[in-house]
Automatic annotation (TrEMBL):
PANTHER family: 50S RIBOSOMAL PROTEIN L28 (PTHR39080), LARGE RIBOSOMAL SUBUNIT PROTEIN BL28A (PTHR39080:SF1). Pfam families: Ribosomal_L28 (PF00830). Residues 1-23 are annotated as: Disordered. Signal peptide: none annotated. This is Large ribosomal subunit protein bL28. Gene3D superfamilies: Ribosomal protein L28/L24 (2.30.170.40). The keyword Ribonucleoprotein applies. Belongs to the bacterial ribosomal protein bL28 family. GO terms for cellular component: ribosome. SUPFAM superfamilies: L28p-like.
Length: 62
């Protein structure tokens, strides 16, 4: 299962980890995915959604 948000399509970012001596090694920042039950076409479905998208959805659907 890939680390991609079902709503926004956000995926992991990559870059360099820097040590104290500024030595660069590759690293990855994963998306903060949460499992949430959502009603889709009248049926409850479990989807993996990013925490930011979940916050936005909770804010918009009062």
């Amino acid at each position: 299962m890939s680390r991609v948000c079902a709503v926004t399509g956000k995926g992991p970012l990559s870059g360099n980890k820097r040590s104290h001596s500024m030595r660069a090694t590759r690293r990855k920042w994963n998306v903060n995915l949460q499992k949430v039950k959502v009603m889709v076409d009248g049926k409850p479905q479990t989807i993996r959604i990013s925490a930011r998208a979940l916050k936005t959805l909770k804010k918009s659907s009062i």
